[in-house]
Amino acid sequence: MHQFFNDMKYIKYILVVSLFGVHFPVLFAQPLKPRPDAFPPVAENYGAKAVQMAATVEEMSGWDRYPTYETYVAMMQGWAEQYPTLCRLDTIGTSVNGRLILCMIIKGEESSQSQRPEFFYSSTMHGDEVTGYVMMLRLIDTLLSGYGSNQQYTDLINSVDIYINPLANPDGTYRRGNSTVQGSVRYNANNVDLNRNYPDPFGTAPLNPQQQENTAMIDYFTNHHFRLSANLHGGSEVMNYPWDSFTSRQRPHPDRDWWIEVSRRFVDTSRMYSRSCFRDVTTEGYIEGGDWYVISNGRQDYVNYYHDCREMTMEISSVKTLSSDQLPAYWRFLQHSFVNYIGEIFTFYTPDDPVGIDAVGSKAITMQVFPNPAGDRAFLREPMSMESVLYDMKGMEVQRIPAGQKVIDLTTLPSGLYLLRCGTATTKLIRQ
Fold first, then answer.
1. Quick one: CA dihedral 318, 324, 330, 335, positive or negative?
2. pLDDT averages per 10-residue partition of the chain, 432 residues
3. 395: domain range?
4. Model-level pTM?
5. Are residues 197 and 148 part of one domain?
């Protein structure tokens, strides 16, 4: 019975009808679709699927197949050789079984400019959720081949350092060997769910020792300064923004309003090409992670909390392993959203601001804080005409700064990352 009432928190309601000509809201329980990583996974039924593999790079030309592991590596190496001035192939690390965790770094001809923001796409940390794997390979090809001819791609590559990791869990994807994705599993070779194996900022210890794949990914985030990222999954179609560890009622993310706008733009763009997409969890196509289902030790909360990086989880296909002949259709309705999401980095980042301090969603209000990082006190360059509120990264209010005041007293606050908000403007402040 207790579980029943817990589940009722995730209910949607619909509006009907009339009595004596007056309309009244009537509540009908319609449970959200279960989160694909919230329950013991069910093995994929491949019997009714056409899962074709590409044993050569040439066989990937139609983008209606999954690559063998060797073909995947050859594709990544081939782009690095074909576009040596635009991209570089990097290795994040290796899996338990020694397979490469690769990343393509795409930088334009103007890559010498300083303070270029870094963006990161990563897919398939659950090895059987492989739609994003092929989507990211095709995104690499599209950006590189379109440079110089497509103005949007050219401008984006010239202004953002783009990192794309198509396959974060190669051992799970190629569980039955390098020649097929059939029989893929969500876990790594140690049978550990990588999305329950990150350090949890809110105190929950992982069930298993930190896995090799996650250690490599954590080191990669530590050695870079990614401002925006996304982690691609499958099993549902919904944009899932932080926090995962709490419902929005318990503890909303400080950037919640920004996340909703970004998610809405992603979904609306995709629905221009397929009106049926992103409808199996919510009608809006997006949800706060904990409102769907609370999890601990996930990558999303870890990255947002510890690395000053806004990361969301993109659930992009209701089936974890699509029939390969459906892959081109998914690309048609997702490609523009994928590209546009990279550009969202400029909705909160400015090149002259190395820690990403900027106004969000408002040209009328701008906020600058110095020094940053700060000691016992920080200062607003210009006093705000409205009251400002300082939040910790758990979304809890810790201080209010009256309108017209420039000094922010930090003496009672522990070291860490904070968010100062005034209206729709948000500034990140680091307390040393």
1. positive
2. 36 36 41 73 66 98 98 98 97 98 91 75 98 98 96 91 98 98 96 96 91 97 95 97 94 90 95 96 97 95 93 96 97 96 81 36 58 87 82 76 90 85 75 82
3. 369-431
4. 0.78
5. yes
